[in-house]
Amino acid sequence: MDILSIVVPCYNEEEMLPITFESLGAKLKDLIDKKKISPDSFMLFVDDGSKDKTWELIEEENKKNPMVRGLKLAGNVGHQFALTAGLICAKDISDISISIDADLQDDIEVFDQMVDLYHEGNDIVYGVRNKRKTDTFFKRFTAQSFYKVMNFCGAKTIYNHADFRLMSKRSLEQFSQYSEENLFLRGIVPLIGYKTACVYYDRKVRVAGESKYPLKKMLALAIEGITSFSVKPIRFIMLLGFISVILSFAAFVYALVSYFVFTVEPGWTSLIVSIWFLGGVQLISVGLIGEYIGKIYMEVKRRPRYNVEKYIS
Ligand code: UDP
Ligand code: MG
């Protein structure tokens, strides 16, 4: 029978963890009892450099419960890298992995369906949420615009799918070959290929603790990103270009009106419009080239993506 690992990234989740251990543990037992998975299946909690008692709780639970394992990262690397660390660790010791957030906003009852779909030959099963009525308007709006922009730009993401998914051993092995710096799991996983399926569920509200992605943190991260990676300012050049091109249309109207209503020097109209328009086009071009240079800059760094401090089993 296949060994299932449930990979859970945790950052300052001390309030949530006792509930998570309990619910996930019960679900795992349920699946084992139904003989869908091996009795050696386990949960792997990845502590993403938490500042609270998260790791202590994992260690404590590990002593009591053989189904609980832990992976402690040396520092906070963020959700995406923490999850990657967990998955890469899990791929060598299990046959199937399900990744889920510690807050259990995603419905653990669809595990059955996910495992069934895996047994039907799917290598990746995506958890897709039906509606977003439990999210605030702001979160829903920003998140959905984000999916739309991503897809528009050519990165094929699954609509309304966060990082709640089942992956087979071989899809994880393939995933581990993607060693890029700009890691966005939802964009990479669909690139792996293989047969995939979706399960649908309703997303719940967080029952304990608070979102680890508050606006303040997102903004702080943005500023940190700008100053320490110095790629983002390049994007402003492009933005400036777009603004300039848009303004050139306003300038065009203004110049045209001036041409007919006031007396202007001959040639001024075409000149002023060209200056605005070409200036904008040039800024966009420079910005676009800068975007690629910025990407190269990020890739050549080849930084280790995370650093595992400890592994307990
Ligand atoms: N998380 C993490 N590292 C971070 C931030 C978050 O490992 O730096 C984890 C967090 O513990 C949770 C998951 O990522 O298990 C999703 O975070 P959260 O629920 O706060 O995000 P939201 O659901 O509000 O988007
Ligand atoms: Mg959450």
Structure description:
The protein has 313 residues and is of the alpha/beta class. It has helices at 17-33, 54-64, 79-91, 111-119, 137-152, 169-175, 185-192, 215-229, 232-261, 268-301; strands spanning 4-10, 42-47, 68-73, 96-99, 124-129, 165-168, 196-201, 308-312. Strands 7-5-6-4-1-2-3-8 form an eight-stranded mixed beta sheet, sandwiched between helices. Helix 9 (232-261) packs antiparallel against helix 10 (268-301). Magnesium ion is lined by residues 101, 103, 105, 206, 211.
Bound molecule kinds, no repeats: uridine-5'-diphosphate, magnesium ion
CATH architecture of the largest domain: Alpha-Beta Complex
* Secondary-structure-derived class: alpha/beta
Taking the sheet with the most strands, its summary is: 8 strands, mixed
Global geometry: elongated
Low-confidence stretches: 221-229
Whole-number average pLDDT?
83
Oligomer: single chain
Based on DSSP secondary structure assignment, what is the total number of beta strands?
8
The end-to-end span amounts to: 20 Å
The CATH class of the largest domain:
Alpha Beta
